[in-house]
Amino acid sequence: MVTCSACADLSVTQLRKTDYNNPYPHHSNVGELRACADASTCGTCVLLWRTMDELTQLNSSKPAIRDHPSETYALYGQFYDDFDFKFGGPTESGEPTTFESAIKIEAKFLTYNLGLRRTGLRLFALEGKPAAQHFSERCTYFDPAPDLSVQLGQKWLGICFTHHEKCRPISSAMPTRVIALGIPSSKPPRLLVTNDLQEPYVALSYCWGQGATKSLMLRDENLQSMQEGIHENKLAKTYREALQVARDLGFLYIWIDALCILQGNKSDWEYESTRMGEVYGNASLTLVAARSSDAMNGFLRNDFKPVADSCPFPYGRFDESGHEIDGLYVGLDRAWFKDTLDPDPVKTRGWCLQEAELSRRTLIYGRNGVSFQCKTAKFFEDETYKFYHKRVFDPKPEAALGPVPGRRPSDGLELLNHWYVNVLPDYTARALTNRGDIFAAITSLAKLAKQTIGGRYLAGVWESDLPRGLLWKPRYQTRWWVNPSKTETNLVPLTRSHPSQAPSWSWAAVEGPISHGWDNRKRWPPYPTEGRPDAFMVRPAHQDHTRWTTQDSCDADVLYMPQCELQMHGRLRRLRSTAIPQVRLLDWYREQGVKARQRPDDLPPQLRDVLLFEPLAVLENEASLLEGGCPFNQVVAFGVFDIAEEFVENIWALPATRDLGLILDRKEDGSFHRLGIFHLLNFQWFEAGEEELVRLV
């Protein structure tokens, strides 16, 4: 290992004497550090420079440290290499006392200009080396130990099985079919019809790619032969590796969709696709082949290459024989650079979302390492642990929301908020090979959520909260600011699905990422129906104003919902659309003294036009309602069309709440078709409209 003069005395023992207030002086300034790193002679300096340089270039609006070579910095240590302290046993709550060992960078430039207070490098030990007896941090993409991921999985599973009550499956029922793993040398795996068998099993979550279709799959014609035995060499590499990992972890059974659902058999597929809640929810573990985009490629090998290579780092301690304890390395902090990567392939696939949400425990093979996530905590190989409350889709019928405004249970509202803020934006940003699966790929999640939220699931919108459920919006046109530190290749304009997979008012009618009108609590009361019966400006037209449609063909267990007509009472108004540069509206907000955080969050991104809406006709008794307010003539609202190419000048507007409403187009039969979403600027003018029956299709 080549080290420079500034790193000659660096070691864990030396840095242990330092802290935030008494750091270790390194190079005299950033310019000298960069010069040493550019010479590529000292691995530690390369890592330090790349960390500071990469971090300060993530946000182009912030100053870059490479432009300030005279800035000074220093180092200090944070080490947890005493196993008695680190793994003295879980606390009473089942949370192990764990910390990651690191070399921290103290630099006023990073702290005050960028707000970075935890910048540094991470230490890890190679499995089987002496340092591994002192440091539990690991790095699977660097460490050649073949069974390291399995050892980590066994450790994390042990913690979860022993201490996490919330992570235990509600039922021990098995899927219809599983693969009995067998013994590779003497007993081949085989397909097993479970009947009433109740045994722990593993489920696999992965991307099919083209390879899955070329692999052995379960079909009607080989159903019998696969029950007699399966030749592993006929399986895609991801399947073979999944079988081996499951065996190594001590399991006897695994569920893989392509091998356990009859491919090409529509009735079997439709039946099994509605049971994913039981398949993944009852699994003892879900194995996630996150880093692989194709089943033929496998997932155990990780080809990830960091922006700078890890290098050995001296421990500064000696064993009983007087030999220095080796096997300790230093590398980049994956906590920051993992967010700059494109997402793992499974995070881009629609079906994989509900598999992750439904699973109680997941062992994830990602590009930046191996991790474990359960309903209580998330464990990562570099010993960064996170304990949190993850939303569990367990049935809570007592929390179901009522069909009309009123006091409603917090569990149902919390899950509803999770659905709006997390599930739908994530799901709609993912891809589906078959667009006809838009409801099927999330149906099991919807079925479980329904037991807590209550009411019917109408083409992707909850009837118990329908006015707000209609207020989804195209993220591409309404995203105020895009984080430059993250790759957002999926932030694209919406397109209309052909053939149509859902009614126009459903988010499933379009393709592309959406967000929700309920994703900014500064703009919305936490739950507008709580003590606010006037929060909604539409009401259902049927059964004492509790049902929004007379159709019974739409609900959480229905896989195809291309049509569903809503009937409601609302205050329709005729408006004319005008596009103006966004800057004009922003200037007006500034002139009015409206602070940035108080401005509506629906404004389009920079350099795009805002659509302003003004009345087509104004009645004499309404003229006073248009005085003052927005300076743009008689503007009463602004908004966006879901599909930019569907712009029409004359539109109908239906306010759904006191803040937001739907842009509509009237069809020849008198029904209305959704075109977009708008923000009310003049509530009183909309409120003055006559209430009438509206048919939304």
Essential attributes:
697 residues, alpha+beta, 6-stranded antiparallel sheet, flat
Structure in words:
It is a single chain. By secondary structure, the chain is of the alpha+beta class. The protein has 20 helices and 30 strands.
Shape: flat
What portion of the residues fall into strands of 2 or more residues?
A: 15-25%
Spatial arrangement of strands, main beta sheet: 6-5-8-7-9-12-13-14-15
SSE-based structural type: alpha+beta
Summarize the main sheet: 9 strands, mixed
| Overall pLDDT score | 83
Number of helices: 20
Number of DSSP E strands: 30
Weakly predicted, low-confidence segments? 82-98, 403-407, 480-489, 519-531, 594-607
- State the distance separating the first and last CA atoms: 69 Å
If you compute it from the alpha carbons, what radius of gyration comes out, rounded to the nearest whole angstrom? 29 Å
Approximate helicity band: 10-25%
What is this structure, in a nutshell?
The chain contains 20 helices and 30 strands. A hairpin with a 5-residue loop joins β28 and β29.
Helix/strand layout:
Elements: H1 12-15, E1 24-25, H2 30-38, H3 43-57, E2 74-78, H4 83-86, E3 102-106, H5 108-114, E4 120-125, H6 148-163, E5 177-180, E6 190-193, E7 202-205, H7 211-214, H8 223-228, H9 237-248, E8 253-255, H10 257-260, H11 266-273, H12 276-281, E9 285-288, E10 311-312, E11 328-332, H13 334-337, H14 350-358, E12 361-366, E13 369-374, E14 377-380, E15 385-387, H15 410-428, H16 443-453, E16 457-458, E17 461-462, H17 466-469, E18 472-474, H18 475-478, E19 495-496, E20 510-511, E21 514-516, E22 539-540, E23 566-570, E24 573-581, H19 582-591, E25 609-615, E26 637-641, E27 650-655, E28 660-666, E29 672-680, H20 683-687, E30 692-696
Parallel strand pairs: 7-8, 7-9, 9-12
Antiparallel strand pairs: 1-2, 2-3, 3-4, 4-11, 5-6, 5-8, 10-11, 12-13, 13-14, 14-15, 16-17, 18-21, 19-20, 22-23, 23-30, 24-25, 24-27, 25-26, 26-29, 27-28, 28-29
Helix pairs in contact: 2-3
